[in-house]
Structures are given as C-alpha cells and as structure tokens.
Here is the input.
Amino acid sequence: MSGRELMPFVILGIGGIGSVVAMVAWFDIADALNRHRPPDDQIPVIVTSIRDIERSMEPRFRHWRILREFHRTNPESSLYYWYYAGTAWSFLFAILGFGFFFHLYWH
Here is the structure.
C-alpha cells in the first residue's frame, strides 16, 4: 500500500485519540458524580448487564443531563471541556478520514 492509500487510516487513527480522551473524561465525570450518590442511584458507567441497559435508559441517567449536572456541581473542572474537545476532535477526523477515503476510491 502506498502512503496515499494509508492516509485515511492514519487520519481515522488520529481521530481515535479524541475518542479516547472523551471516554476517559466521561469515566471521570461519572465517577465524580457517583461519589456523592447512594449505591442504588449510581450512574452506570460501563454496561455489563441488562439492568445497566435499563437504568441507562431512565431519564435521570440521560447523557446530557449527566453532563449538565456535572458542570453545575463542578463549574471549575476542565473535564467538561475535555469531553467536548475529544468528541469534536474525533468527529472532525472521522469526517476527514471518510472524505479522504471516498475521494481516493470513488473519485
């Protein structure tokens, strides 16, 4: 494979770094909120059972609500911004990688 053919995969790999940053920030956000919650009201961070799936669908565990709660309770924390930066980074590089891929093979 030439460098030109490998470029979409390199771009997607660089975008994966943003996904890792967003994932680590999310785990830290959920952990920070779970420290102040009783055991029966914990935010399911990783889905490991059917019960976790059912709980993650409840309105109080919706993704945006958790982010707003964290930002409200920890306004000085930069984790909130790292999460959004990592997410934006991964989407940007995914679009670039797929665009480059389609340009190479369907142009």
Observations:
- The chain has four helices and no strands.
